[in-house]
Amino acid sequence: xxxKKLLHLEWIKFAETDLSAARELFSKDDSxxxxxxxxxxxxxxxxxxxxxxxxxxxHRKIHDLHSLLSLLEGQPFFSSKLYDAIExxxxxxxxxxxxxxxxFPTKKEAEIAIDASEFIISFIxxxxxx
Length: 130
Fold this sequence. Notes:
Elements: H1 7-26, H2 33-54, H3 65-70, H4 81-86, H5 107-127
Helix pairs in contact: 1-2, 1-5, 2-5
């Protein structure tokens, strides 16, 4: 069984894996852009949840990045740049994984999603170091 004190590190690993997969698919043809955006969003979500777990902040099992980030607002390291970064997912969120989602990202939007995920994961990692 995983040590609860180390659980946040596993969430970070999963976030980094999502980001890595998003980057790899982005380097392929444009038919993967919806998956790139979804994986980028998932990386952000998992990084934020890693932070909540590390700080022992109770949270519901939701996918709404705004709601999850709002739970971190009182922390000394919190930055409004986190909200700025998640705007990259406002158009897509998790609905993009469904075939009837009528919204598909452009190549530029997928690239912005990767950048946002990278920023949030790095920011969280830097601020929850032991």
